[in-house]
Amino acid sequence: MLHDPTTAVDAVTESRIAAGIREVRAGRTTIVVTTSPALLAATDRVAVLDGGTVTASGRHADLVAADAAYRAAVLR
After folding, report:
1. Residue 31 above 90 pLDDT?
2. Which pLDDT score, from 0 to 100, does residue 58 have?
3. What domain range includes position 9?
4. Rounded to an integer, what distance in angstroms lies between the CA atom of residue 4 and that of residue 26?
5. Is 22 exposed, middle or buried (0-12, 13-18, 19+ CB in 10 A)?
């Protein structure tokens, strides 16, 4: 489980971390708590939580296109 692993890094480092996570998690379940678009785009599935309840789930790109609240949270 990773909690906002890229909050204190620049965009280049964030992209490198996202690529590393993608490589290391191959064949494994990995839970990442983040609002980072780079990390979210690297996932297979995103679960959106609001008050402890899953309000949406799917691929990052699909959620950005279809869910205004999700889009606002991650594309600030």
Report:
1. no
2. 95
3. 2-74
4. 20
5. middle
pLDDT for 56: 93
How many domains does the chain divide into?
A: 1
Q: How many Å apart are CA 18 and CA 62, to the nearest integer?
A: 19
Q: Distance of CA 74 to CAs 20, 22, 23, 24, 40, Å?
A: 21, 19, 23, 24, 9
> CATH number, domain at 69?
3.40.50.300
Task: Give the tokens for residue 15.
Answer: 């992209």
Three-state secondary structure readout of 9-50: CCHHHHHHHHHHHHHHCCCCCCCEECCCHHHHHCCCCEEEEE
Measured in whole angstroms, the distance separating CA 74 from the mean position of its chain's CA atoms is: 9
